[in-house]
């Protein structure tokens, strides 16, 4: 606590006759902001810079400097530092919002240009790279199947692991599982893809298929499901378990009939968020599912496509029509993921355990 | 009484253990936990096995070679360029993302009006959900041309630093641009974890500081940041783990080359994940092994970074519990 406020001599003495320091009027930050933006734009125009990033940088710098100088003069250096910190925090916030808005705006405006019913219900069969038309039906189908299979694999394993950690755990094994679940959350998706590639494709000799991709996605999904389910199970009050056990109900039935139903809302949310996360994964799909222009409804045989992979392929083709298709597919993908997210959070709120009666 | 109690306990526990339902269910859940461990072990074992095959055929040093030609005769490949690119782009990402993320976390936890704070936290969560390929698409089509002006400017005024000297004319498909894009992508995860930690700061600390007449910034510097330091570190490392392993956004934005250049603004370079995605389709069987070898290195690095992050978080839990 060496930074503690000591009775340093105040840089500015209180005004005579009052107990409070002089304060800048409330509108000062707004005025300084407006002034520095104007100055930034003015310099930018005068120097003929195209990039608005530079205009913004100059404005921000001016704003901070002027605020600091003004506040030091009127209110003292401690207040000045406070104001500078406040404006920096606001700048950080703006810095985060700008790319988000830009991304959303660009995706929606470019995506809507191509997106229509035809686009959703047709594949790329026979469509040349440079010509417009074609659609994402095969990719949608592939994504739904792969993500579905991945969920069928990952959700039960993840759920049971969480049950083990919360209801049975406590030993060395549980500690190891907890640690490795945490570490597993950070596995790069491409490594999960490479793992399935070495085992399923190279060692066991299977070809690319939707199922191979689904296994890699399941590996990415498991730790997320475990973490969220674990959190939810920990929230279930112990009294419920004890009441059930006291009635002579076996532990497994207590878990199935009392603990899990109590936490079901949160668990569903966790699983859906995990689904949303793996829906956008491209790298493992690129390695294992390979991509095709045709509709392949069988996830166990032959190459399939998927939405994120489709976006990548169309971007890589690079013609105007293909890039337009990539944007439209990106819009569908982002809408899919966002809807999953919103519904999941809605369920969490709706099914939240009622605390206190 | 004293003699009967242990007996009673033993008989009860023996009885519950023999219930078939209980045995099956506990076995299943324990088995799932073990499955996860087995998967982790299998990842390490299988990738290592393939890596050994690959490296034994490599005619040069795997760690110091600046070339990637596993199909050549003799095969030549090394990860020096990839390691350099991965580290540099991640450093750029961290330098940008960590301060900004701390700022956003502070904004949400301490500065934003109450009504704004919740929706904001929500928006940050949504940001984390945007698929990386979409960041890549946005980065390649929107960010790259947009950064051209900034690059020129940096070159003009900071060119003397060597790092910002743009020697090669070309689009901004550089490690620097990749770093900026990665920074945007890892912002949400760092923000989320730091925000959680900031919200846990004991209210008494803050109120005590306020009561002594501290300004808001002084409260943050004296009570919030010291309390949250380990949280910030581990959050940053989680973000770093993400940045190191990011594949598609890098693959789409970067124009790869097998050169190490200190000029960050020049197009070129490569990262582990990007190289795997880019080279995979044209690779023969042996080329795949080489890519798997580079994947193992990436796996080991991210494992270390994430493990360290978790270890720091875990350590913090203990002492904050004692202090609270």
From TrEMBL, chain B:
Matches recorded under InterPro entries: MetI-like (IPR000515), MetI-like_sf (IPR035906), Phosphate_PstC (IPR011864), Phosphate_Transport_Permease (IPR051124)
The entry's keywords? Cell membrane, Membrane, Phosphate transport, Transmembrane, Transmembrane helix, Transport
Q: Where in the cell is it found?
A: Cell membrane
Q: What residue intervals traverse the membrane? A: 33-56, 76-108, 120-148, 174-194, 243-265, 290-309
Q: Which residues form the ABC transmembrane type-1 domain?
A: 83-309
Q: Say which domain of life the source belongs to.
A: Bacteria
* Gene3D superfamilies from the UniProt entry: MetI-like
Q: How does it sit in the membrane?
A: Multi-pass membrane protein
Q: Which family does it belong to?
A: Belongs to the binding-protein-dependent transport system permease family. CysTW subfamily.
Instruction: Say what the protein does.
Output: Part of the binding-protein-dependent transport system for phosphate; probably responsible for the translocation of the substrate across the membrane.
Q: What NCBIfam families does the entry give?
A: phosphate_pstC
Q: What is this protein called?
A: Phosphate transport system permease protein
| The organism of origin for this protein | Streptomyces bikiniensis
Q: Which gene encodes it?
A: pstC
